[in-house]
């Protein structure tokens, strides 16, 4: 029997039953990577010798009667997580030789749960792109169409899952970096509530791996089934033992409902600042129809939905002002000159991003205050609805675009070009207020490319969108291997 595309849940059951060993699963996964990854380039840092040793240890532990959540299951890890003895570069050539001495807290949790780490998956330069390529490891291709991107920045992890390179992976999300690759590659991902999963050790190379709280950024699970997302989130979730974990213990509430017919869902498929492509609209419609057919209450409008245009503006301001905080002064002078050329009436997202690069602390605080207003608006919304269904990006996976200046790239939406980074408005809808969001497969485009949607849930009620993802998978199907 071939095991590579089995769910982690099924693999765990097979391991418990003695139908397969971890060594056999690991050897099969390694053989598949060695055979197929030359064309995809998803696993950029293999760690096969230690994986085989870990698999042997897992089999011995099971023989002693141990049974941990991921015992013996092969997984991959995004390159940006520290793993002792392996390089952490974030795709930056100047850090190609940096090797951390300690595991990231999430890698430690994977290993404590018994997972077998096959290696690390590819990322874009500095994790700063919606694609996955860098000078050290090269370009990762989309398994459905090698001429297209798998997304970013967790593109290597999504491509690895689509190719059967391990049952699970972990990634990070600041600008859709879990959800967009899942959407482009036809797999599942979950962006947890901000602060739910400790992030220590997912840090730029050479910087101290301190237990800091990051604004907007989270780490989370990726899988080929919705239930596997929950399995892995339960391993990842919880405060850092060096800070909040000293006094806090995690107790996530159960999903609001177990039956599809009990869910109240708001469906959105259009954004005031960016059109949604036909293929993605079709995916949203497929999910909406499945929800309605299953008895869920489905609405298309709500007067309490926070303003989407302002939400996108606030997100871009918070994202960009944080990203450029360490720019050298000479770069700031150049940016200031460009910003001075903008018309005062220019409210485009490109102008918003440029102005945000020059934010003062006072301006950031004002923006943060507006974020709190939006968070309260979402609390009001989730008193009436359980989940919001909406796009992740306006299109399926797009062709590789390695233009050296990302600000000059364009995204084609049904034949009309738009600024490249405008496509982040949908990812930012959940990221700006820190809400959980689950990416689920929702069909195929006319060209046969995967299309996904996101299920946004109430803060710290991550199990609610995850449960709806499971119910949707039962009705419309989920991951299918690339042809």
Automatic annotation (TrEMBL):
<dbReference type="InterPro" id="IPR023631">
    <property type="entry name" value="Amidase_dom"/>
</dbReference>
<feature type="domain" description="Amidase">
    <location>
        <begin position="24"/>
        <end position="464"/>
    </location>
</feature>
<keyword id="KW-0378">Hydrolase</keyword>
<protein>
    <submittedName>
        <fullName>Amidase</fullName>
        <ecNumber>3.5.1.4</ecNumber>
    </submittedName>
</protein>
<dbReference type="Pfam" id="PF01425">
    <property type="entry name" value="Amidase"/>
</dbReference>
<dbReference type="GO" id="GO:0004040">
    <property type="term" value="F:amidase activity"/>
</dbReference>
<dbReference type="InterPro" id="IPR036928">
    <property type="entry name" value="AS_sf"/>
</dbReference>
<dbReference type="InterPro" id="IPR052739">
    <property type="entry name" value="FAAH2"/>
</dbReference>
<dbReference type="InterPro" id="IPR020556">
    <property type="entry name" value="Amidase_CS"/>
</dbReference>
């Amino acid at each position: 029997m071939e095991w590579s595309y089995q769910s982690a849940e099924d693999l765990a059951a097979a391991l418990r039953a003695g139908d397969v060993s971890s060594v056999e699963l690991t050897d099969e996964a390694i053989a598949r990577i060695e055979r197929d990854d030359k064309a995809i380039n998803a696993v950029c840092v293999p760690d096969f010798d230690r994986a085989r040793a870990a698999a042997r240890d897992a089999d011995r532990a099971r023989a002693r009667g141990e049974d941990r959540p991921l015992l013996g299951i092969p997984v991959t890890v995004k390159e940006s997580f520290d793993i002792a003895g392996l390089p952490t570069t974030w795709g930056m050539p100047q850090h190609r030789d940096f090797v951390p001495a300690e595991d990231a807290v999430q890698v430690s949790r994977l290993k404590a749960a018994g997972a077998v780490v096959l290696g690390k998956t590819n990322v874009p330069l500095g994790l700063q792109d919606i694609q996955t390529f860098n000078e050290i490891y090269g370009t990762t291709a989309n398994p459905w169409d090698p001429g297209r991107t798998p997304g970013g920045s967790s593109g290597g992890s999504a491509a690895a899952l689509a190719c059967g390179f391990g049952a699970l992976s972990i990634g990070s999300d600041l600008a859709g970096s879990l959800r967009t690759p899942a959407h482009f590659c036809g797999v599942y991902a979950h962006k947890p509530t901000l602060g739910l999963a400790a992030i220590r050790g997912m840090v730029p190379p050479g910087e101290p791996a301190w237990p800091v709280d990051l604004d907007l950024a989270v780490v989370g699970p990726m899988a080929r089934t919705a239930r596997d997302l929950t399995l892995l989130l339960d391993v990842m979730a919880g405060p850092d033992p060096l800070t909040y974990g000293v006094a806090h213990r995690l107790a996530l509430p159960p999903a609001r409902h177990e039956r599809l017919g009990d869910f109240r869902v708001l469906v959105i498929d259009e954004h005031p600042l960016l059109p949604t492509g036909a293929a993605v609209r079709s995916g949203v419609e497929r999910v909406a129809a499945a929800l309605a057919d299953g008895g869920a209450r489905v609405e298309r409008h709500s007067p309490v939905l926070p303003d989407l245009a302002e939400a996108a503006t606030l997100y871009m301001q918070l994202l960009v002002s944080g990203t450029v905080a360490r720019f050298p002064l000479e770069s700031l002078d150049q940016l200031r000159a460009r910003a001075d050329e903008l018309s005062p009436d220019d409210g485009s997202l490109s102008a918003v991003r440029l102005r945000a690069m020059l934010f003062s602390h006072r301006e950031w605080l004002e923006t943060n205050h507006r974020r709190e207003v939006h968070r309260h608006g979402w609390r009001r919304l989730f008193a009436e609805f359980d989940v919001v269904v909406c796009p992740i990006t306006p299109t399926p996976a797009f062709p590789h675009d390695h233009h050296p200046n990302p600000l000059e790239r364009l995204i084609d939406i049904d034949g009309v070009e738009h600024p490249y980074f405008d496509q982040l408005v949908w990812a930012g809808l959940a990221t700006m207020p820190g809400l959980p969001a689950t990416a689920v497969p929702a069909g195929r485009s006319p060209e046969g490319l995967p299309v996904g949607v996101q299920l946004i849930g109430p803060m710290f009620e991550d199990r609610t969108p995850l449960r709806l993802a499971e119910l949707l998978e039962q009705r419309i199907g989920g991951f299918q291997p690339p042809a």
